[in-house]
Amino acid sequence: MDPKETKHVSAQAAESFTTRILTANGVPAENAALISKCLVQADLRGVDTHGITRIPSYMERIRQGVLDARARPVLRQITPVVAQVDGRNGFGFIGAHMGMGRAIEMAGEYGIGFVSVKHSNHVGMLAWVVQQAVEAGMMSLVFTNSSPALPVWGGRERLMGVSPLACGAPAGEEKAFILDMAPSVAARGKIYKAARRGETIPGDWALDGEGRPTVDPHRALEGVMLPMGGPKGSALAVMMDVFSGVLSGSAFAGHVTGPYDPSRPADVGHFLVAIKPDLFMGLEEFKERMDYLYRRVVGSEKMVGVDRIYYPGEIEQITHEERLKTGIPFIQAEIDSLNREADTVGVEHLVIS
Ligand SMILES: NC(=O)c1ccc[n+]([C@@H]2O[C@H](COP(=O)([O-])OP(=O)(O)OC[C@H]3O[C@@H](n4cnc5c(N)ncnc54)[C@H](O)[C@@H]3O)[C@@H](O)[C@H]2O)c1
């Protein structure tokens, strides 16, 4: 069988498969359903780097005892608008979902809610947290820190994480604003994906172990990711560490453990804010203004060679709608890797559409 042959899997099949594996590895059913939903949402949005292909690395962490499958995060109210979640080394998805849920409640009552999450794990694609807020009619800021992969400007060692920042705002008739970006030229997951698929990477994404630009994803994984916009990208990575790591009480300054390193708990931190959009005007007026902004952005005069201008998050929203109909494309090698996990715990394989 060709390891690069593409097959399609429905969102429902991907979700139930992931839930089966998670529950068989000790994750409580309710949490397994939520984690599966978040991962499949990434696959649906075309953020395949942060979808269900992450399952083997997450399960290895459970098997090695560095991620607690059964952990139940604990929430502590600090002030009327500030809360803290202790993730207790459980899945990042669970602590972040609980945190944003509380931030939304506080914003509903007081206009703003801020939650700091500590002792958490990899949280995947941040856009799912923003989507949680958008669905509740809230604006949001979502930051996380992550394991060292990026040098600070002028440095050559891996020190900062390729730590993403995301934010969003609901609209009226038009698409919601959803920005979700890593401060590197490309997310590190894109290098893992290219390595998995036997593909090359663009020469401006990473340096190899000797500090030379490389198109080989395996050599890139031995080196460092390049920050976007030079010193500005590495400054954003430091900012994610200040707000997610230093402030929360989690690991920071290069001490977060990566999702592919099963030797130690990750100790990731997150920073979550929800804001009520109708603080300064009525909700309808806010939504009309968001719709106007959308139309101004996508209707802007195009540069030569550009067919269409997209709003932040729009390409992913279009992909989401398409993949709900066509299914999610996986290559055979990815399906085989997932099915090996299924065999490990004796559950049914992934159902291909
Ligand atoms: N949890 C973690 O530790 C971690 C670490 C790194 C990245 N990630 C995730 O990886 C994902 C990918 O990050 P990335 O930086 O590679 O994203 P990206 O470069 O693909 O996209 C970044 C942003 O730019 C927008 N965009 C992209 N192309 C556009 C276009 N042509 N027109 C208008 N807008 C456009 C996207 O909608 C998105 O909001 C994110 O979901 C991020 O949360 C997670």
Strand order of the largest sheet: 2-3-4-12-5-8-9
SS class: alpha+beta
Question: DSSP helix count?
Answer: 11
Q: Which ranges are low-confidence, i.e. pLDDT below 50, for 5 or more consecutive residues?
A: none
Overall residue-averaged pLDDT value: 96
Number of domains: 2
Q: Determine the fraction of residues in helical runs and give it as a percent range.
A: 40-55%
Overall geometry? globular
Topology-level CATH name of the largest domain: Ribosomal Protein S8, Chain: A, domain 1
List the bound ligands. Answer: nicotinamide-adenine-dinucleotide
Main sheet characteristics: 7 strands, mixed
CATH class of the largest domain: Alpha Beta
Secondary-structure element series: EHHHEEHEHEEEEEHEHEHEHHEH
CATH superfamily of the largest domain: Malate/L-lactate/L-sulpholactate dehydrogenase, NADPH binding domain
As a percent range, the share of strand residues is: 15-25%
Cα(first) to Cα(last) distance is 18 Å
